[in-house]
Structure formats: C-alpha cells, structure tokens
Design brief:
By secondary structure, the protein is an alpha/beta fold. It has helices at residues 35-45, 59-66, 88-97, 120-130, 180-183, 190-200, 220-224, 228-237, and strands spanning 2-7, 27-28, 33-34, 50-55, 75-80, 106-111, 114-116, 134-139, 142-143, 148-152, 155-160, 164-165, 169-177, 205-209, 214-216. The protein has a single domain (2-136, 170-237), classed as Spore Coat Polysaccharide Biosynthesis Protein SpsA, Chain A (Alpha-Beta Complex).
Length: 244
C-alpha cells in the first residue's frame, strides 16, 4: 500500500493565509510545525516507509522543507500537477500517468488539510477484508457550524449552538485501488465524481467507521480555532510519540 498525500490545491478557503503559504504548510501547534509534517509523521507511525506528495500551487515550499523525507523518516517522492489538473482525481490520475504507481498497487489517499489520529492500519485491514475498490474513512457524527433552533408558532422553543448530529461523514482519508484510475477518465474530484462513478458502475465501495479525532483545517475559521491545546490533545492520543 502506497500513501499518497494531496498537497496541490490553492487553498482558496484559507485565504489570505494561502497567498503566502501552501495550504499544507500552514504552521500549527506550539512548535508551529507545518500541518503536513503531522500528517507524514502519522503515516510513518503506521509502518509506512514512503509517501508520494502531489504538489502544485507553491509546491516549492513543500519540496524545500521536506526534501527527501529524512526529516520525517520517510522516503518522499513528488509529482507536480500539470496545467490540466482541475481537482483531486485529476491530480492522482496525473501521478498515475507519470508512473508514480501501477495498476496493481493500492493507494492510501490522505487529504493534506486533515489532522487526525485515525488508525490507518485498521483502515487498510478493512479495505483488504472487504476486497473493495475503495474504502472511505467515515466518522459517525458531525458538528454543525451553525446553531439549530426548534420553533412553535414562530416562537423559539429550544436552541442548540453548533450541535453534533448522528450522520456518517467522510473525513478526507480513503484507500483506493489504482486500477480504478484507468477507467475514471472524465472524473475531476475524488469524492464528488470518482466514488459515485465507482458505485454506479457496480464496484464495491466500503466504509470504515471510526470515532477517531479528526479536524478539517481547510478554512480560515477552522484554522483560527485550532488552538495549541487541541493540537496537544491530538498528539497525546497518538500511539507512538512524535519525533522531535
């Protein structure tokens, strides 16, 4: 299984920060390390020894910081998005056509703006157990970004500020058989296009449901609310200590 991290987007939801930073390079936590460093160390903790980083916008920041991967104990390779890349599936397909992986490989796809302690080994095991074309990491609940009210005759009877609701949501990590990219010639986005296309074609798409911590750092609001305490708690939940 080969880890593939999506690091190529312009990060428009994180502007104005991403006028200066590549979105995966925004600093977080007390040590102000790049978000991507936490992602790569998480991958390393689960026994992987290499990863492919798909880069584009401000990708030089990623390459200059991580170089060959020695900083995080991984062998890193880089694939640059072409001008034709319009979305996440395009980016992976571009890497496929450039020989970053072959039809018989299985990919651990990790969105570069997600902080999580998800058990990647269990996700991989679930994928192989299901013999699926793709397996999505899914959380069983989601916190709404807005308040919710209950009314009666135009009168507010009850209000909950940003409640959690019981609904299965994807968290930006999945396992994908590389062979699916050969037939997905018109899909642009993984979640919006590729996964629905696989389901429609009869391919098996499995779900790995986990209560793991996850945090989408992909917006300015979420970045501003990512306190040092949240990052500290995240680090404390990891099975293996992060190398310093």
């Amino acid at each position: 299984m080969k880890p593939v991290v999506l690091c190529g987007g312009e990060g428009s939801r994180l502007r104005p920060l991403t006028y200066y930073f590549q979105k995966t390079m925004v600093p977080i936590g007390r040590e102000q390390r790049p978000l991507l460093e936490y992602i790569l160390r998480h991958i390393k903790m689960h026994g992987f020894d290499e990863a492919v980083l798909l880069i584009g916008y401000k990708g030089e920041q990623v390459v200059n910081y991580f170089e060959d991967g020695g900083r995080v104990g991984l062998r890193l390779s880089y694939v640059w998005d072409t001008d034709k890349v319009r979305g996440t599936c395009d980016s992976i397909r571009n890497a496929y056509h450039q020989g970053a992986f072959t039809d018989d490989e299985t990919l651990l796809v990790y969105y570069g703006d997600i902080l999580t302690n998800l058990d990647l080994s269990a996700l991989a095991a679930k994928h192989h157990e299901e013999n699926a074309a793709a397996t999505l990491a899914v959380s069983p609940r989601f916190q709404l970004p807005v308040g919710v009210v209950e009314t009666e005759n135009s009168r507010v009877k009850r209000m909950k500020e940003k409640p959690f609701i019981d609904i299965l949501v994807t968290i930006g990590i999945l396992v994908l058989e590389a062979r699916t990219l050969k037939t997905a010639t018109t899909t642009v986005d993984i979640m919006s296009d590729l996964i629905p296309a696989l389901i429609e074609s009869g391919e098996k798409v499995a779900a790995y449901v986990s209560e793991a911590f996850w945090y989408d750092v992909g917006t300015t609001e979420k970045y501003e609310k990512l306190t040092n305490e949240i990052v500290d708690n995240y680090l404390n939940t990891l099975k293996t200590s992060v190398k310093r």
